[in-house]
Amino acid sequence: MPQLKALLFDVDGTLADTERDGHRPAFNKAFREAGLDWDWTVELYADLLTVTGGKERICYFLEKYLPGFAPEEGMAEFAARMHKRKTHFYLQMLQAGEIPLRTGVARLLNEARTAGLRLGIATTTTPENVTYLLKATLGGASVGWFDCIAAGDIVPAKKPAPDIYLYAMDMMGLKAEECLAFEDSENGIRSSLAANLKTVVTVNDYTRGHDFSRAVLVLDQFGEPGMPFTVLSGDADAYTCVTVPLLQQLFIQNSLSGQPD
Ligand code: XBP
Ligand code: MG
């Protein structure tokens, strides 16, 4: 009988709704500080999110929307310099407690730990962004709840490549058949599926229309007792929020039916 051993979480959009009111304004602050009048609006950012990684996103923006822009220092150096300042502003927001966890995340992490499930992170964002988010929302000790925080440039290819999930599983000594992944976006689930991981999705406003046809379950949120999730696709039985028994049930059903192949 297959046994669920670990939960592997994406961060941006999954643990917290970080993009619209977190990363996006932090990029804008960095541009303004540098004397640039670029404004990444909520609408424009939907397109920019098709590229994962902040430095990669800056380069994509320049190539597509400002093709004449040629910084003296070179594109990669310019993007890295802007991104460093963007990270500074983003960390300030985290430290100020401006970015909460999504509904049900803290409860689920606690329940998973109590049940003896191992926890890991697989994200394209910068490592400090993860540790600051965890410390600000769950306390300093929470960083140690995760056996591996796989983040950012530690792998050569970011999502949708499978590299970050493969790296996390390698570090944790786990096989894909022993884990469930949690994602919120198409780039994210392409990455987890390419790493052969059964994947649960919680959507957000930027990702509601993405293709999640190969997810084991798609929800609007993890939910809480008294604050039920809405099932967008898949079968959550009689459950109304994501709990360890629901995850174990999904894991066994989908292991037997050979998901995600
Ligand atoms: C998240 C990202 C990140 C963040 C910004 O994607 O693509 O780039 O938007 O963080 P996912 P950085 O949730 O699929 O991991 O600026 O630190 O890259
Ligand atoms: Mg995400």
TrEMBL record:
<dbReference type="InterPro" id="IPR023214">
    <property type="entry name" value="HAD_sf"/>
</dbReference>
<dbReference type="Pfam" id="PF00702">
    <property type="entry name" value="Hydrolase"/>
</dbReference>
<dbReference type="GO" id="GO:0016787">
    <property type="term" value="F:hydrolase activity"/>
</dbReference>
<protein>
    <submittedName>
        <fullName>HAD family hydrolase</fullName>
    </submittedName>
</protein>
<dbReference type="InterPro" id="IPR006439">
    <property type="entry name" value="HAD-SF_hydro_IA"/>
</dbReference>
<dbReference type="InterPro" id="IPR044999">
    <property type="entry name" value="CbbY-like"/>
</dbReference>
<dbReference type="InterPro" id="IPR023198">
    <property type="entry name" value="PGP-like_dom2"/>
</dbReference>
<keyword id="KW-0378">Hydrolase</keyword>
<dbReference type="InterPro" id="IPR036412">
    <property type="entry name" value="HAD-like_sf"/>
</dbReference>
